[in-house]
Design a protein that fits this description.
Number of helices: 7
CATH architecture of the largest domain: 3-Layer(aba) Sandwich
Strand content: 25-35%
Structural class: alpha/beta
CATH class of the largest domain: Alpha Beta
Number of strands: 11
């Protein structure tokens, strides 16, 4: 099982990103500082590292990146930050970072759900809408096979821009349980059988897949 090291001083970030990756079938190791990240890497080298740019202590993100490149030259590293600019991204890339991922919220904010960019990965078709007595609904969606492989039960998916939990999954489709509030405030309340819906998967899953396929070489 591929191992992903998440190095971030914010527990919410580690918990949220770790849950997403675990749901996708990856083993997660956490580090709360640059020094901790280096120690975890030397104990058992991970396959990929997600590294926060702004960490306290003598080793911030950039310094940790430099040390990781020395200790594990073949380790792909993705930098993450909620307050960085273009200059930071360029500097990280020059130091050997595989990519630079901008956090959607500030580090002090509560994070939940999953990471998406607003880009459509594919189009699905609604195959069933079953209304419940509580005002909610169970919606079944046929999706392209190349997207279904990213989905797991209790994982996340974006349907027409709405972040939802996968309630059921088979070889051709998945289902989501919609609460009354979601039906009231989004276009999903007007969606019917046969309608197309835009789908997006979690962005971290895409980065991890690219790295595991050799994209960091």
């Amino acid at each position: 099982m591929p191992i992903v090291l998440i190095a971030d001083d914010e527990p919410n970030i580690r918990r949220m990103v770790g849950a997403l990756l675990t749901a996708e079938g990856y083993e997660v190791t956490e580090a709360e500082s640059g020094a901790d990240a280096l120690a975890k890497t030397k104990e058992g080298e991970p396959d990929i590292a997600l590294l926060d740019l702004m960490m306290p202590g003598a080793l911030d993100g950039m310094a940790t990146l430099a040390k990781l490149r020395e200790a594990a030259p073949d380790l792909p590293v993705i930098m993450m930050s909620g307050r960085a600019g273009l200059a930071d991204a360029v500097s990280a890339t020059k130091l050997g970072a595989f990519n630079f991922l901008e956090k959607p919220l500030t580090p002090g904010a509560f994070l939940g759900g999953h990471l998406v960019s607003g880009h459509v990965d594919g189009v699905g078709e609604v195959t069933g809408v079953r209304r419940g007595q509580d005002g909610g609904a169970w919606m079944s969606i046929r999706a392209p096979r190349e997207l279904l492989r990213y989905l797991v039960e209790k994982g996340s998916v974006c349907v027409d821009g709405v972040s939802l939990t996968v309630a059921a999954l088979d070889g051709e489709s998945f289902a989501v349980a919609l609460i009354p509030h979601t039906l009231d405030v989004t276009t999903l309340g007007e969606t019917e059988v046969g309608d197309p819906v835009n789908l997006e998967i979690d962005v971290i899953a895409k980065y991890v897949e690219a790295l595991m396929d050799g994209g960091g070489a």
